[in-house]
């Protein structure tokens, strides 16, 4: 009877840890998407610095896979989001440095999330091992009672 209660407790604990792991995996995916977006913007600005044309032509996405042709009037500055709905103008070098800092913050958050996920997976493995041991003991108990 005690082993049955122990199995129920392990199953409950396992479900809780699985839910936590799923949330961490979703968070990791969102962090990775955010990081990749910052990386793409950084690379775009770095490439813009290399353009020699005074007013280069670009394609501006307007949605549904559609674009408008436009010209960049000021290729020395960019307006970058600083969060909470605010954006500021920075020269390209400062904008790239700012984006690199944000990318590093994302990398740190991703590393912490991956570590937490690894720990949870280890805990899940331990719980599964304990449950298997209890099942083996129960199976051996049933075979002896014949």
TrEMBL record:
<dbReference type="InterPro" id="IPR009053">
    <property type="entry name" value="Prefoldin"/>
</dbReference>
<comment type="similarity">
    <text>Belongs to the prefoldin alpha subunit family.</text>
</comment>
<dbReference type="GO" id="GO:0006457">
    <property type="term" value="P:protein folding"/>
</dbReference>
<comment type="subunit">
    <text>Heterohexamer of two alpha and four beta subunits.</text>
</comment>
<dbReference type="InterPro" id="IPR011599">
    <property type="entry name" value="PFD_alpha_archaea"/>
</dbReference>
<dbReference type="GO" id="GO:0051082">
    <property type="term" value="F:unfolded protein binding"/>
</dbReference>
<dbReference type="GO" id="GO:0016272">
    <property type="term" value="C:prefoldin complex"/>
</dbReference>
<comment type="function">
    <text>Molecular chaperone capable of stabilizing a range of proteins. Seems to fulfill an ATP-independent, HSP70-like function in archaeal de novo protein folding.</text>
</comment>
<comment type="similarity">
    <text>Belongs to the prefoldin subunit alpha family.</text>
</comment>
<dbReference type="InterPro" id="IPR004127">
    <property type="entry name" value="Prefoldin_subunit_alpha"/>
</dbReference>
<keyword id="KW-0175">Coiled coil</keyword>
<feature type="coiled-coil region">
    <location>
        <begin position="96"/>
        <end position="137"/>
    </location>
</feature>
<feature type="coiled-coil region">
    <location>
        <begin position="7"/>
        <end position="55"/>
    </location>
</feature>
<keyword id="KW-0963">Cytoplasm</keyword>
<dbReference type="GO" id="GO:0005737">
    <property type="term" value="C:cytoplasm"/>
</dbReference>
<protein>
    <recommendedName>
        <fullName>Prefoldin subunit alpha</fullName>
    </recommendedName>
</protein>
<keyword id="KW-0143">Chaperone</keyword>
<dbReference type="Pfam" id="PF02996">
    <property type="entry name" value="Prefoldin"/>
</dbReference>
């Amino acid at each position: 009877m005690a082993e049955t209660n122990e199995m129920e407790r392990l199953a409950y604990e396992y479900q809780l840890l699985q839910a936590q792991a799923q949330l961490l995996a979703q968070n990791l995916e969102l962090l990775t998407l955010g990081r990749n977006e910052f990386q793409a913007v950084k690379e775009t600005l770095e490439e813009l610095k290399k353009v020699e044309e005074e007013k280069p032509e670009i394609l501006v996405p307007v949605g549904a896979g559609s674009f408008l042709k436009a010209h960049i009037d000021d290729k020395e500055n960019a307006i970058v989001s600083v969060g909470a709905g605010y954006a500021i103008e920075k020269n390209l070098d400062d904008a790239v440095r700012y984006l690199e800092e944000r990318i590093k913050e994302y990398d740190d958050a991703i590393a912490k999330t991956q570590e937490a996920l690894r720990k949870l997976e280890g805990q899940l493995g331990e719980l599964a091992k304990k449950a298997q041991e209890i099942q083996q003991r129960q199976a051996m108990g049933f075979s002896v009672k014949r």
